[in-house]
Design a protein that fits this description.
Layout lengths: L4 E6 L4 H10 L6 E6 L17 E6 L7 E3 L4 E4 L3 E7 L2 H6 L5 E7 L1 E6 L4 E6 L4 E5 L3 E5 L3 E6 L7 H11 L3 E6 L2 E6 L3 H8 L12
Antiparallel strand pairs: 1-2, 3-8, 4-7, 4-11, 5-8, 6-7, 9-14, 10-13, 11-14, 12-13
Length: 208
C-alpha cells in the first residue's frame, strides 16, 4: 500500500448483525477501512485467499440492486455499500451448499467479488431457467427466484431420483428462474479438499 494510506476498523451494522455475519456467514466481525491521509491518491493491494478471478460490480444509486453473495466471495467495497446477511429457507440452506445465512450487499458504489477458478456470468431473461451445481454459486441478484432440488429429474420415486443424483456425483442443484444475473465459479474448493484429504500425511497409516 501507499505510504499515505490510513487504516481504520469499524463494526458493520450493530453488534447482533456483526455477530451473525461473523459466526453464520463466515465473514469478519470488524471491517478494515482504507483512506488517504493527505487527500492525495493512494493504492492498496487486496487479494483473495484462494487462486481465482476477481470481478468489479458497479451498483447504481437508482434503481438500487441487492446482491446475494456466497461465503468467501466478498472481497471489498466502497463505504456507500452495506454488507449484511440474508436468511435462506430450510431446503435452500441445506441443498444449496451456502448455509442458512448468506451475505447480501445493498447501497451504491463499487463491489469487488472473488472466486475459486474463473467466473462465468449468466443474464437470465424473464422466465429463462438455469441449473447451477451445488457449491458453484458466487453471487446473484436478490430478486432472482430459485429452488433447490435433486439433480436427476427423470421418472421414478424420490429414492430412485436420489440414487441417480448420487451416482452422477451431482446431488443437489439450484434451479434459477429469470429475470436476474448469476455469477458462478468454475471450480469448487470443497471438491479440491475432498480430493486432497486421502493424501494428507495423517490419513496415511504406516504398514506394519
Amino acid at each position: 500500500m501507499s505510504s499515505n494510506t490510513l487504516i481504520e476498523t469499524h463494526m458493520e451494522g450493530n453488534f447482533c448483525k456483526a455477530c451473525c455475519r461473523c459466526c453464520c456467514a463466515g465473514e469478519s466481525f470488524f471491517f478494515s477501512d482504507f483512506s488517504s491521509l493527505d487527500g492525495q491518491n493512494c493504492d492498496v493491494l487486496i487479494g483473495p485467499k484462494v487462486p481465482g478471478e476477481i470481478i468489479l460490480l458497479n451498483m447504481p444509486e437508482s434503481p438500487q440492486i441487492e446482491w446475494k453473495i456466497q461465503k468467501g466471495s466478498y472481497l471489498c467495497c466502497d463505504p456507500t455499500i452495506q454488507i449484511g446477511t440474508s436468511t435462506q429457507g430450510c431446503c435452500q440452506g441445506v441443498g444449496s451448499g451456502e448455509g442458512f445465512i448468506i451475505l447480501k450487499a445493498t447501497g451504491h458504489g463499487r463491489l469487488v467479488l472473488n472466486s475459486y477458478g474463473s467466473i462465468i456470468r449468466y443474464d437470465l431473461q424473464e422466465g429463462e431457467r438455469r441449473t447451477i451445481d451445488n457449491g458453484a454459486l458466487v453471487a446473484w441478484t436478490g430478486h432472482t427466484q430459485y429452488t433447490v432440488g435433486l439433480a436427476s429429474q427423470s421418472g421414478g420415486g424420490l429414492f430412485s431420483r436420489a440414487f441417480k443424483s448420487a451416482m452422477t456425483g451431482e446431488g443437489f442443484v439450484c434451479r434459477f428462474v429469470g429475470p436476474g444475473t448469476i455469477f458462478v465459479q468454475t471450480r469448487s474448493f470443497s471438491t479440491l479438499a475432498a480430493a486432497l484429504f486421502p493424501h494428507l500425511p495423517e490419513n496415511k497409516k504406516p504398514k506394519k
